Amino acid sequence: MNRIIITVVLVFVGVTSFAQYTYDFSKNCTDAYTLVLNLKFDEGQKLIDKEKQLNPDNNIPYLIENYIYFLKVFIGEEESVFEELDEKKDDIIDRLEDGDESSPYYNYSLAQVYLQWAFARTKFKEYFTAALEINRAYRRLEKNEEKFPDFLPDKINMGLLHTMIGTIPDSYNWIKKVVGVEGTVNQGTNEILQVLDASLKDEKYAHFKAECLFYLSFIKLNLSTEKDKALDYISMITKNNSDNSYLSSPLTIYAMSRIYMGNGMTEKALNLLLSRPKGKEYYPFYYLDYLTGLAKLQKLDKDANIYFLKFLDEFKGVNYIKAAYQKIAWYYAVNGNTIMYKEYIAMVKDNGYDIADADKQAEREAERDEIPNAVLLKARLLFDGGYYKRAMKELTIENKDFLKDERDSLEYTYRLGRIYHGWGKPDDAIPYYLQTIKNGSQSEYYYAANSALQLGLIYEKREDYQKAEIYYEKARSMKNEEYKNSIDQKAKAGLSRIEDR
């Protein structure tokens, strides 16, 4: 009897050990993947469930299901949803770990889940756990590169890892030690571009196009000297897109509107944001209301506050709450209503979190308890919107009585530099940047540090790498409290690009 039991157990173990799950990007899966990236989660889930029934051994539906979990957490930023889906994610990992290790999708799928959740955790300041998960993702991808060097999808995640690692500020160097990865912006960009190129030429990789374009637009906009190059990706989206549904995806609209706004093309961004599709079939992306309000505020439109109020009323996440209250306060400041400015800037202190740089800056403004200079604020907003002529008109009036103190004078030279620079007149911008650095290098404000960063960008573009390196280092060395992480990250990315040349 004992022998029979042992034999049965051994047979059972042998059967289960060989019953490994497979990886098939079937039509149901590719269609579900497209729907999920379009934020049509309910429709995508139906196809995922259908595939699970038709092909119960297929692991790809579980990978796509994790995209839903990740995007819900990353976009919605609700802590209760994060905790609930974090537990469900463990079930997906258990399932994926039982997959066929001879497939390149085995390590790729696990790495993808770890990497997505690492990014999700940064929304909630779980940096140490995020670093551990990035490490796990990297080890999986490393194994895959050894076993399957020609497996292109790996390069998407490797590209993201190498890009982000290459821009970590010095104050977060412990993350590098935990992760154990080195990389640069150029390296990461080139890896993702390889997959994008394949997605445009080879049908079997076509479903990766949306993801590649989204990541590349983010990298070019935030970590590159050539923000205008990100416009090339919009051209690629429209030229090579046979399915117009992708162009109406909220994620695509987010990426495209950010690119337009980053290049001072606010009108184009507004057209996209105001015409974006809405309906119950889309997972709510409330940050797009914040972006709409910001674009309208940069244009000095009279209804800008409405979109910030809508964002605050509906968004239950953690980021940009303080910033939204600040922007409403700014709306009233530029319209001469100091009473309402004070009312809304006071709300910054009691609402939201100070994780994002925009929220940190809003908190500092609220703590200072000073009404901003309306002239300088108008110039700043108009510059951000790409309305350079209008911005310059605000600052070039003969009467300079609007400059009330040392900070106003510092911002004044900084704004002139930024306007000339954005207007395509860097030679006119340089003296103002230098003056700002001279007068504000010891200041807590960001004007001098960002002036140094901008000089680094100017000289890098001119291929004067020695001067570019000097100013990037100078930007990192300053003690500014405002936008410190953002400026340091961009300066680090600049130095990384120079090293790559």
What descriptors fit this protein?
Serine Threonine Protein Phosphatase 5, Tetratricopeptide repeat, mainly alpha, 501 residues
Major sheet: size, sense and barrel closure?
none
Total strands: the figure is 0
CATH class of the largest domain: Mainly Alpha
Structure annotation, total helices: 26
Question: What is the strand and helix layout of this fold?
Answer:
Layout: H1 2-18, H2 27-37, H3 41-54, H4 60-76, H5 79-97, H6 104-122, H7 127-147, H8 154-165, H9 173-179, H10 185-201, H11 209-223, H12 230-239, H13 250-262, H14 266-274, H15 287-298, H16 304-314, H17 321-334, H18 338-350, H19 357-368, H20 374-384, H21 388-395, H22 406-422, H23 426-440, H24 447-461, H25 465-477, H26 484-500
Helix pairs in contact: 2-3, 2-4, 3-4, 4-5, 4-6, 5-6, 6-7, 7-8, 7-9, 8-10, 10-11, 11-12, 11-13, 13-14, 14-15, 15-16, 16-17, 17-18, 17-19, 18-19, 20-21, 20-22, 21-22, 22-23, 22-24, 23-24, 24-25, 24-26, 25-26
Overview of this protein structure:
This protein is mostly helical. The chain has three domains: 220 residues, Serine Threonine Protein Phosphatase 5, Tetratricopeptide repeat, CATH 1.25.40; 87 residues; 125 residues, Serine Threonine Protein Phosphatase 5, Tetratricopeptide repeat, CATH 1.25.40.10. Helices cover 72% and strands 0% of the residues. The chain contains 26 helices and no strands. α7 crosses α9, α17 packs antiparallel against α18 and α17 packs across α19. About 3% of the residues have low confidence.
